[in-house]
Amino acid sequence: MHTPSSNPKLQQWSAFGTLEVKAQTDSETKEYTVITVEDCEILKIPAKDFSRLKSEKLKHENKEKVKLIHNCPYYEEWPTLSICKLAALIKWKKFPPGHVIVESGKIITFVAYINSGYCNVYRNIIGLMKLQPKKVKKIQKLVCMGTLKEKESFGEISILLQVPFTCTIVTGEEVEMAIIEDKDLFELDPVTKQLMLYTAKPTFDHLKDEDIKNVYLQREQKEEWKNFKDKTMKNSLYYNGIIPGFGKWDHRWTSIPRNLKNTLISY
Asked: Quick one: pLDDT at residue 232?
């Protein structure tokens, strides 16, 4: 027996069924009958047991969310009840490597709790780029000032006070985060929001412009020193007639000299 091509077809790993039987009207989704067209092996789970499994899964996920928030530095002293309020708003999200989470000067749209992976934190600085021997151009550069690792959070102050981020955050590898969107955060009770403002701090707010300049200069000096070493080594080799990738002498032997034959080893 074959089903018409217009009918939906269930294949391997498909699922069907319901936990509750509800009265349906004509405007609602119609009921379907499932008919096997060949020998099938089906895993059958009673509605009562499936409901229990879903409940256990939700409990486990909620426990993991509470544990993640509680392990973040700003929330170590928080009461469990307040953490549970945040956990109820959490959504899991993954970001690929090199993804810009938030740019400097912009307000982030969610609070993030890093579950796995890390993010690099960059600060902007105005640097000079040499165009000609006597001409330079001012350009904006990003200087990596540190990382945000597992069990760290960010975004609380930016959202609640609606202030722009002073740094740019980019994922260093694939990162899994528990996030709370700004619209959900605004609906929290005033006590929880005040507690968050009291305990959280702006991301890398302790850095001063002088710190950023020092890191930038160290990086530039290190790059200049590397370029100087490479150039000096290359000039020294070339001066002595040594070119990387090429031999200094070219032997054009038609046969192996007698004095070298005894040194050869055959495998």
From this structure: 67
Task: Give yes or no for a contact between 203 and 148, defined as CB atoms under 8 angstroms apart.
Answer: yes
> Backbone phi, then psi, for 172, in 5-degree steps?
-90, -20
Instruction: Annotate 169-205 with three-state secondary structure.
Output: EEECCCEEEEEEEHHHHHCCCHHHHHHHHHHCCCCCC
CA distances from 114 to 18, 52, 154, 202 (A): 35, 30, 9, 16
- In the predicted structure, residue 23 carries a pLDDT above the cut 80: no
Nearest to 185 by CA among 107, 122, 115, 105: 107
String of DSSP letters for the chain = ----TTS----TT-----SS-----TTSPPP-----SS--------HHHHHHHHHHHHHHHHHHHHHHHHHSGGGTTS-HHHHHHHHTT-EEEEE-TT-EEE-TTS--SEEEEEEES-EEEEEEEEEEEEEETTEEEEEEEEEEEEEE-TT-EE-HHHHHTT---SSEEEESS-EEEEEEEHHHHHTS-HHHHHHHHHH---TTTT--HHHHHHHHHHHHHHHHHHHHHHHHHHHHHHHTT--TTS-S-----SS--HHHHTT----
Question: Measured at the alpha carbon of residue 171, what is the angle toward residues 169 and 172, in degrees to the nearest 5?
Answer: 120
Q: Tokens for 116? A: 């796995």
Q: Write the pLDDT tens digit of every residue in 117-170.
A: 999 988 877 655 565 666 666 666 777 778 999 999 999 999 999 999 888 999
Confidence bin at 227 (pLDDT 50/70/90): low
Average pLDDT over residues 172-198: 94
CA torsion angle 204 206 209 215 (round to 10): -60
